[in-house]
Amino acid sequence: MTVVRPAVKAIIMRGNKFLILKDRRYNLWTLPGGRLEISESPEDSLTREVFEETGLEIIVGEVAGTWNFRSFDGDEERVLTNFICKEIGGKFKLSNEDIEAKWVTPREFLMDELKVPHQSLKKAISSYFKI
What we know:
Number of helices: 3
Largest sheet: 7 strands, mixed
Helix content: 10-25%
CATH topology: Nucleoside Triphosphate Pyrophosphohydrolase
Strand content: over 45%
CATH class: Alpha Beta
Shape: globular
Number of strands: 7
CATH architecture: Alpha-Beta Complex
Number of domains: 1
CATH superfamily: Nucleoside Triphosphate Pyrophosphohydrolase
Structural class: alpha+beta
């Protein structure tokens, strides 16, 4: 039986760029964030996950779309809500889950060279930024 897990991702804006992380396990680019814990609001979950993954403190803003994909082992379907976020503090550090980080424009993110877990992430970014 497939389990559907809600998750949240942050589009942390810095000027006209946002932060992406390259996952150590799958060598794919994604946004900071993660799954919701039981009884945790999406905003609280995203604030916690971003701090754990990047050391950055954020304010969670408007919803910027959703995307979904099946986990690599096929046991879970992830339904992710993307939020536009503002960096308000902290000191950036790369977690042990990721091997690289970079700030990209929406157009740079949509380039074929940046491999993502599922193309619906690129569709969500394209739709929100109207590219």
